[in-house]
Amino acid sequence: MDEIQDLFVSGRHGYHTFRIPALAVSTAGTVLAFAEGRRNSRADTGDIDTVLRRRERGASDFDDLRVVVSGGGDVAGNPAPVVDRDTGRITLLFCRNPHDGPEDLVWQDKAQRTVWQTHSDDDGKTWASPREITSAVKRPGWTWYATGPCHGIQLQSGRFVIPCDHGVGVQHERYVDWCRSHLLLSDDGGATWRIGATTGDGTNECVVVELDDGSLYLNRRCDRRDEQPLYRRRYARSVDGGESFAEDDWHHDLIDPHCQASAVRAGGPGAPLVFANAASEARERLTVRRSDDGGRTWSSGLVVHPGPSAYSDLCDLGDGAVGLIYESGDEMTYERLRWTRLNVDDLGG
Length: 349
Description:
Blueprint: E1 2-9, E2 17-25, E3 31-38, E4 48-55, E5 66-69, E6 75-83, E7 90-97, H1 103-107, E8 114-120, E9 131-132, H2 134-137, E10 142-147, E11 153-154, E12 160-168, E13 179-186, E14 194-198, E15 203-210, E16 216-222, E17 232-238, E18 247-255, E19 262-265, E20 273-278, E21 284-291, E22 302-318, E23 321-328, E24 336-343
Antiparallel strand pairs: 1-24, 2-3, 3-4, 4-5, 6-7, 7-8, 8-9, 10-12, 11-12, 12-13, 13-14, 15-16, 16-17, 17-18, 19-20, 20-21, 21-22, 22-23, 23-24
């Protein structure tokens, strides 16, 4: 574990708190670290921008913070980037809701959560004016909506796949209505989007990885408390590029405090998968593991931060290394977003 750096520290740059990290690596080798910059409080709703720091190939440090999307007093968050390996374009999906329309009101269908995208054609230095895509990716009856929050992927076929989740309006009450994980698909470089596979009630934030055989592995937060096992992750698999899921079950060996987690394939064909989460029944003990069998079993892993920790994202750095950004603190969870580089060989087998 090296290159430890606190990229976003709460209370700096005019922001009360930084949360919700996402990572991407451009075709030029630039690492892009996204986050939500929450100006006035730690709350999920308010004046929230999507912000970015970049580190170009060969550089020793990340550049200064820049605003990718301004909330303009409202929410612009849940960053979910994907890189087109053919064109170099970096596409970023994100969500909006009004500052006076918090999550409770969104679940009640009294405030709208909308879905947007922007893109960069100059390695993340500048970004296009955002455009709304809600009508293409959100079905009638869906209330809450979240893109990512973590990176999307481009498949061997060229298809973009973005992991997401949504709420289903039945009783129109948060913590009563269920959330479900789903995938967004684009076969034209992000010009148009459509809804792909959707999983069952009680699943939430998720991350997707393409395996050597072209199948997809989806690892999900599970918030159901009315069935066993409690405090465990779920997984699903797709053999048709994210159109549907052919397998869906529990990860009995992955303890989780009902929290977001991240995963990535650490290299090309034959490379292991790497997974990071707060491996506890509380938001603490940020642990990174590896799998050499496509996510069926996982190593005991490396505890990166034993204290308060929560959301994270991973990226492939090449040469058997991954980058990790994660929420952590010494006394409370959201003191900073910390970056580190990990050698996959150090994660067990």
